[in-house]
Structure formats: C-alpha cells, structure tokens
Amino acid sequence: MVVPVTLTNDIKSAVDLSNQAADEDVKKQFANAIRLYRKSMESYLNAALIIRNTCAPFVERAQKLKEFSGEIDQEVICEGLPEMKRIHQLPLLGLVLPPWCIQAATVVSGRKVCYTNDITGIDSTKLVLSQIISEPKAKAASSVLLHGPTGSGKSLLVRAIASKWPEKSVFIVEMQTFILGAVEHDGTKVAQMLIRNFKKHNTGVLVIDNIDYLYETDHPDIKKAPVAAVKAVIVALFKGIHEKKNYKDLVIATANKPWLLEDDIKNAFHAKLNFPILSEEDRMAIIRGELAKIRCPTYHEEHMRDLVKKTERFSRYQLLRLVRFALTRNFNNIEGIQLKEDAERLAHLTKDDLDAVASVLLADIPEEYVTRYTEFVEKNPTAN
C-alpha cells in the first residue's frame, strides 16, 4: 500500500507546528503558542481521519487474522519446522497491514469474548456460574472458586462476563501483576483500596485471577511481605462474605493449583466449580467443532480419532492453538496479499498441516498435575 502524500504532509505539519508552539510558549508568547497549537491539532485530526479511511478496507482481513492466528509460540511450534521460522518472527497482523496503521486496525477489529459462544465444552460449569451471577441470593452463593488446569478457560470465562451481563462492573485482578504493584507500595493499602473501589458498585463483580499465586512458597524475598499483606486482606474479604451471607458482593477467584489453598480460604467459598481435565471425547468434540469452522477437505473422522490420541493432557487452549498453528502454515507469502479475498486462505488447511503441528506441539498439562488435581477434586466436591 502507498502511504497518501497528504498524510505525510499533515503529520509533518503537525509536528512542525507543535515545535513552533513550544518555542513560543517558552518565550511567554502565549497568544502565538495557542494559535500554533490549534493549527497543529487540526493537522493531527486530518492525519487521523486519513489513517482511519485508509485502514477501513483492511478491517475485515484483520478480523480474520485475529480470530485464526492465536498467540504465536515460536520456540515450540518452530522446532523441527524450519519453513515456519520466518513466518513467526513478526506478528501476523504486522505482515499484512502497513506499520503505520496496525494499531488503528487492531482497535477497530477488536472483539469482546462471547460468554455463550466462545467458550465451549464446559456447559455445566457455565450454567451454574450464570445462575450465581444472575441470582446469587437464590443460589446462596456470592463467593466462587473456579479451579482447573492452565488453559482450561477460567480466565477467559470471567473476562466474558461483561458480554452476557453488560450492566455489571467487572473488576479483574491478575494476582501476579497485582503483587508487582504491591512491591512498590503498601500491600495492605493497595488491596484495601481495590476492595473499596469494588464495593462502590452495587452491580460489581470482583475477579481474583490466579489466587493460588498467593500460596506459592518460592516467592523471592522482595515479594514475601507484599504477598503476606495482600493475602491477609483477600482472606478477610472472603471470610466476611462467607459469614455475612447477604449475597450482595459477588467475588470470583480462579486457581490453577487449588490444592495450594489453605483451609482458611478454601472453606470460605460458597461454591467451587471444576474445569475438568479433558477426556478423549471432550478433546474430540473440541477438534470437531474447530474443524467445522474451516475448510479441511482431506481430513476425515478417522483422522480426527488419530489426532485425538496424540493430544492426551492437552488443555482446551492447547487444542485451539493446534488448529490455529496449522492454519498459519499457509502464510508462506502473506506479505503479498493484496485483496481481502486472498485472506480466504486463512480458513483452509490440509491433513499435512495438522499432522506437522501435532508432531511438535507438546502437552501443556504435566502428569504430576493430573495426579494432584484428581486427588483435589475427589476430596472437594464441586457445584457442577
């Protein structure tokens, strides 16, 4: 794509005028500075309009890329596949769109995760969680633990709450990131401030993502005090909700290693929902559902059965990545895509594509995890 000349001129003009305005500001010539700033802003707005109009034809293509590309894990997927290494050196979106409009297209083509359609295979869990979110008092539950292996869909599900209940204010706290903030500030005050802000919203939902991180034992010394401070506040929150039983404040926690949780918080949840390790039939259903969305004429039922046998201890996320990585093997000449119709290759793959990726993509659930998690589920019955 050729960058419009007027766009270059507008950006250059905006920068020059901004610099001139700054100089006038230093000289205390405020009237001149304001006049130049206004002209600079006009040039910036003109440039923004041109970028938006220029990007419009690429939005549909960008959407397809975002849906089918997934996250690129070069180290894993390129092992043994030399022809794929070049493809994964840059984000797929960047290979199709001009660098100056990647951000605009990404924003425009962004799509919320849909609670109903985007997370499949855990219908019983979704049903119970839906009932709790809709009527916590009727279900006598306003503190919920979602537990299951990494990649099972816990975080994705809580991020999709806003799509089904747009009237609710959803506060999502990723605990590892939150602790980094607590290291720089007073952990107790930071956690208390979070809870105060949450309680200001009558329809709020607070999500503590990866709560089991607070119970890890290998934190570096710099994190031990913040972790202890935040944990004390979070435990007090769940205990208070459990004891009051007014079912007003809805708080959801997710855990990859629920056996790390101590009794003080484990017993404070009104409901525990299990995201089970996928059985062979579960994996078959997911792969069949994904392949139904695309064109794969050389892939038949017996091929699916063979593929499923190679995916033992694959999480839901890893299965989705398998199909998306197979799709990316079509992108040998993606830089040459000129028309949006060319992007139809994104919806087509062959048996060789799937077999090649399945041969190098590894199970992401360790055997030790399966043993520990199975024991936990047997000892802790869930609501679903």
Question: How would you describe this structure to a colleague?
Answer:
- This protein is α/β, with parallel strands linked by helices and 384 residues long.
- The protein has 3 domains: 5-57; 60-108 and 279-369, no CATH class; 123-276, Rossmann fold.
- Helix content is 53%, strand content 7%.
- It contains 18 helices and 5 strands.
- The protein has helices at 5-26, 30-55, 59-69, 74-77, 92-96, 102-108, 123-134, 154-159, 161-164, 175-184, 187-199, 221-244, 263-266, 280-291, 301-309, 316-328, 351-358, 367-379, and strands spanning 143-147, 169-174, 204-209, 250-255, 271-274.
- It has a 5-stranded parallel β-sheet with strand order 2-3-4-1-5, with helices on both faces.
- Strand 3 (204-209), helix 12 (221-244) and strand 4 (250-255) form a beta-alpha-beta unit.
- Helix 14 packs across helix 15, helix 14 (280-291) packs parallel to helix 16 (316-328) and helix 16 packs across helix 17.
- The longest helix has 26 residues, at 30-55.
- The chain is globular.
